[in-house]
Design goal:
- The complex is a heterodimer of chains A (211) and B (89).
- Chain A has 211 residues and is mainly alpha-helical.
- Chain A has nine helices and no strands.
- Classes of the chains: A mainly alpha (211), B mainly alpha (89).
- At the A-B interface, helix 2, helix 3, helix 5, helix 6 and helix 7 of A face helix 1, helix 3 and helix 4 of B.
Amino acid sequence: MTDSASSNSDTELLTRLLAGEKAAFDLVVRRYHEPMKRVAMAIVGEAQAEEAVQEAWLTVIRRLSTFEGRSSLRTWLFTVVANEAKSRLRKGRFSGGKREVSIEDGPGDGLFDSQRWKSDGHWAQPPTQWHDSSPEALLSFEVFRKCLDMTLAILPEDQKAVLTLREFQGLDVEAICNILDISASNMRVLMHRARMKVYAMVEHFEETGKC
Amino acid sequence: MLSCKELAHQHASDYLDGQLSPRTRLAMSFHLALCTNCRRFLKQFRAVRQLLQSRSELQVDEKTESEVQDLAARLHDSYRQQKNNSSGL
């Protein structure tokens, strides 16, 4: 879904929500619950994420009729859940439950390996030529789809959150940084590392046909 | 002179996202004109980005159909109740 397309459909969805249409509540949960959970997990960790999202939904319902539409519906939803998660994080800090959004997650993929590079920064093991790199062709293989899903599933939560908000939800950099409370450079590093891990997975799949 | 490692690790994503400074973009263009390996890497890195964009959502932790419907029904009820309260019904 493009940014403008999702904004348009969100405008319509908001109107239906305000009118109290039951199907609209079904749609908003279906569309945003999991992405909201991604955001919560990146901030407060998996154990408290579902509770944070549930609490965020209640806040959304309480404030829905006064939502002024200064941001898009989805940016507002992500902001509400991020605030709820941050509030839980602050409470957790007092009891020793601190968790920072961090880029220090360790490389964990072949392109970061030192043997890949010569000391002068040139390729020691150059990238192999992929047989077929179109998304449609790769995703047509069931084994590849499973492999991709598995790779995405084990990314650190902060990388998943950035991927979700940027690549899947199409939010701009400023909105993502505000929601996750990270700098633009931090966001770019998280995004780059996630892409590099997927690159390494695709490269391995192209070479071996296996995950 | 930009190294291959710097190109791959520090600038590739910013290049694809249009976030590079004009100076770094120029340095990358020079490097890419001379380096087959980095051209290949960048072409395939771009394909990874397209791949991720075409995968519309992370396919994990999906709520079940009944969980979605239950949560949606609870939210709908809360909203209706709130509206009724505010209108004095």
